[in-house]
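DATA SHEET
Item: assembly model
Revision: 1
Owner: S.N.
Input lines:
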Amino acid sequence: MRIAVCVTRVVDPSEAMPFQVGPAALSGEPLPRCLNAADLSALEQALRIRDRLAGTMVTVMSLGPPECEPLLRECLAAGADEALLLWDSAFEGGDTLATARVLSRAAQQLRADLVLCGRLATDGATGQTPLQIGELMGLPVVSGVVHLELQDSASSLLVHRKLDRGCRAVIRCPLPAVLALEPGTGPLRYPRLRDRFQAWQAQIERWGCQRLGLRPEEVGERGSCVQVIEVGPAKPDLHGLFVPDNGLSGMERWQAVVSGGLAGPAGPSAERHPPLIEGPPEVGAERLLSFLVEEGFV
Amino acid sequence: MRVHAPVWAVAEGGSGRLPELAVSLTAEASRLAGQLGTEADTVVVGNCEDELVRALGSRGATHVFVAGWSAALHDSDAYVPLLTALIRKHRPSVVLCGTTILGRELAARVAACLGTGLASDCTDLEIGPGGVLRMSRTAYGGRASCTVVCPQARPQMATLRPRPFPTDCGASIREPQVIRLEAESITSPRTRVERVVQGDPLTMDLVEADVVVAGGRGVGGREGFELLLELASLLGGAVAASRVAVDAGWVPYHRQVGQSGRTVAPSLYIACGISGAPHHIVGMRGAGTVVSINTDRHAPIVDLADMAVVADLRDVLPPVLARLREDTSRARSAGMSALGMLAESREDR
């Protein structure tokens, strides 16, 4: 069985963002980068399959400039069998669909039986690429995967996927398929020092347009439909903004600020809260039920 | 003559409570359509009752396409070819989807089939010069906002975060034309949902829960939490606790909400025997509706609640649970028959 794992380099989510407001997008200085957390889960799942199923080959591939190589070596150290760098100057500036074109073509050329991706990159956070890879390859896709197991002598998969409200769907999926994994479905194993040394010396093949059989106008900025025209600091979420009431006395305003906007003016000033239900508990229960029904929770 | 092709909203239907997403997406679509001088249409995936059609009409939908086969709502696989063909036929200029699981998957896959651009999780849409949609979205984990456009390819696709839309956009109430799509046009999905596992109230990730039932000192002990546990499982939610209850060993630490625990923003937060110390409140302030059950009418949580019952939760909850249990068992027997019908219809196909 051949497993292709798509990994991507993201802006390190733990670092502060250097910004230049306006159409010039991000400032020129290089941003701190790391491997995307969900992609590490995907790699770990691939390695677990390989541990159980003899003759499995795990290929890690990443679309990105040569600076991505050290990150691919981390994947090799953790146990991936080979790493591919998908890069060509024509790949620069692609949107999700242009990226999916490159990754799906590479997976096809590898004849992958299973393509594993992280569900979401922490920086772009579109979550589109795995779904579009599947669509371009004509394969079934399951996104939001938290657990997977091979079934029927590795011809199909049983996967658990996230649904709303903490529910999980158990899905049977034929192979070949594309899966997008949630982050945190298993931390990536810690490599041995010997494996790190080997990974440093490993050859990383580079596939460009020619090797993949793609025309330069299909990929990168020329092959993209979406253009980013402006990047700036996040707009504040107005719902969460707390402003103390100017009509309060200084003491009360101070109390409101230190309590995070909770302590209202002292005394029974519950004008904002008419539904205060007192009396026997049966009445409370009745009112509570009808409230839940009215609000549509029951 | 129309200058621009129509603006489409694509959303799940459903029975019972009016699917708000379909209505709000339609309102947004007709707002954009008004600016473009064209019309808004809605594609409803799943059940579409007359009430929903009327609601969509009042928000400005001219046509309502109904792809009604509610069985595979978890599965975008069934609807991708259908929606792709529909868009190829009618050539809308803009297609809006919701940020639900189905909405996200459908949008990404259909965009790939059509070879067009998609902006995910948009917070704001505007018509720019030349009728090009300017889509604002957040990136870098909410630390940046960016504006994207799709200047050439059509349709321009976006998934839209839920937000309060004007309930009535002022469009005259009209009867939309309903076009029911044939069930045959829905391909049977390659993936099969074997079963759906309900979340367990004690282990469900608190951040995922839509309903949180939290207990504090007033719960009194583990026996009290049994009541909360049952309420949570009947409402399909999770059990949480304030620090006092966790420190007392009544529930494990991963249930703690507040400054030294998790921060949650469920649609419904039921605080039982919680006074509402600031350290707890910071963890649940994002909740939509807050209900408090507390013996103290002056507790700070009462000021925050949308409804406050002043009583002991051990007296209030048992009758509530009894009623909910009754409703659930009735719904379950009804659900079983619906599932039976579903199995039959699958065999027919």
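QC remark: Confidence is low (pLDDT under 50) at residues 265-271 of chain A.
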